Amino acid sequence: QLVESGGGSVQPGGSLRLSCAASEFRLDYYAVGWFRQAPGEEREGVACLVSSTKDGPPEYADSVKGRFSISRDIPKNAVYLQMDSLKPEDSAIYYCVIGSWGTCPLTDDDHWGQGTQVTVSS
C-alpha cells in the first residue's frame, strides 16, 4: 500500500513537500515517481527516479524542471517530492507511483497511491 501525504493549499511562489510511504514494498527496489491530474486535464507524469540498483538521473516533466525535486529515503522507505516556486497551474491531485521493473517511465499498470490534493491559489 502507498500512502501520500503533505498536500494542501499554498500561495503562488510557495513550497510543499509530498511524502509517500510504503508498507508492503522495499522502495529501493522499485522505480518511484509522481503523477498529477487536474480537473478536465490529462494525467501528467511529473517526476521519476529509477531503482537504487540502476543508474540514472531523475526525470522531470518540462513544466516542473528546476522547481520540483524527487528523492528517496531508503531507511524510512519513503519517497518525497519537493515542490518549490509553485504556480496555480500546479494545482492537481498528486499520485505516488512505483514500478517493479525499476525503470522510468511509470505506467497505469504500476502500483498507485490514492492521491493527495495540492492547491496553489492566492
The number of helices is 0
Which structural category fits the helices and strands? mainly beta
Helix content: under 10%
Shape call: globular
**Strand tally:** 11
Mean pLDDT: 95
As a whole number of angstroms, the C-alpha radius of gyration is: 13 Å
The low-confidence parts are none
- Main sheet attributes: strand count, strand direction, barrel closure: 7 strands, mixed
Secondary-structure element order, as H and E?
EEEEEEEEEEE
Report the portion of residues in β strands. over 45%
Q: How widely separated are the two ends?
A: 34 Å
Fold blueprint:
Blueprint: E1 2-5, E2 8-10, E3 16-22, E4 31-37, E5 44-49, E6 59-60, E7 68-73, E8 78-83, E9 92-99, E10 111-112, E11 116-120
Parallel strand pairs: 2-11
Antiparallel strand pairs: 1-3, 3-8, 4-5, 4-9, 5-6, 7-8, 9-10, 9-11
Short note summarizing the structure:
The chain is an all-beta fold and 122 residues long. The chain is built from no helices and eleven strands.
